[in-house]
Amino acid sequence: MSALVVPPQAAPPAASPPATESSDKIHRSTQGLFCLWHGMNHRDWRALLKMGLPLPPQKRLRRWSISALSLLNSWHEFVEQQFYGRRIEQTVIEHPPIFVLGHWRSGTTLLHNLFALDPQFAYPNLYQCLFPGHFLLTEHVTTALTGWLVPKTRPMDNIPADWKMSQEDEFALLLRTRLSPYMLLAFQGQRERYGRLFALADMTPEEHALWTREFLLFVKKLTVRSPRPLVLKSPSHTYRIPLLLELFPDARFVYISRDPYAVYSSTVHLRKTTFVENCLGVPNFDGLEADVQLSYEECIRRYEATKSLIPAGHLHELRFEDLEVDPLTEMQRVYEQLKLPGWDCVAPTIRDRMPQLAEFRKNRFTMDPDTMRQVYNRLKFAFDLYGYPSRLSDRGEAVT
Description:
By secondary structure, the chain is α/β, with parallel strands linked by helices.
């Protein structure tokens, strides 16, 4: 029997360690002290601490630094409110967003970045998502002074990174509400803490009001910054079509699928990396693979069960493999199916970017036959639904 080599999402040249193996590279932080929790204000940081965070002595410096910066964040939020509060309150969201959907590592970043090439659209960037409470006030000055602190590439896949890179709005929702599956970064291995936060289908009235208020506030602030239609990308939104339609009945959606073996392998690596970079305790990988499989299955089933709620003509589906090979044709289909204007203007930009995309080399992950069988048996319905082969023989052996 031979192991399957699975290529995950396209990235600049650099090989990552196998998803099924322990690696010093995975266990060593590249961000150092800084992590996403540094974007919290003091009120929310105190609320998170009260939830019983595991904070061992070796993370004491990170805890102290977050506490200190949370006070500064609270002050900046107060000042921003004085300068921008009325303008934010009076802002009307005239353009319903475009939501990029798909499980983590399915190609959502590539799709989001291609949308970002079109100047008619706006998108949240890294700084805005990590400091959602005061980016209107601080973004221009802080990013100019601290750009050198941002790692040159994303730790999970080596895609180029800076403060202006497109980012998931889910990080802003995590920091402002704590109603996010990314709470798993704080409570690693404790699914009871974050499992219900993927779909958000059973929120209490108070939680629903908080999440809705903060999401709309974030979208309004992005609109203040740039009054263009927004393209929002967060894989967790794939679970939340009913909730998104409640807020934006005319929103458009693009859903991307990918070979489940590649998605699984790359997601395991993603979680290990983000656990190390953002943990507040000792990284805990116990049960990680099983949790990834469960979340993946729930994501696909939830999407397929709710996508019929999207109005006709407001949803387009595509495959990562097709987008990777011919981004120009696939993006043209997206524009045509969703009736988006401006294709003739953005097409030359995408065409010029294609040689750069073609030069990207994929990370490679080794998947052993036993893991392949587990993934296939768990997600057979997704393999069949999206037309991906099992690559297993009749005896359950990997076929290379």
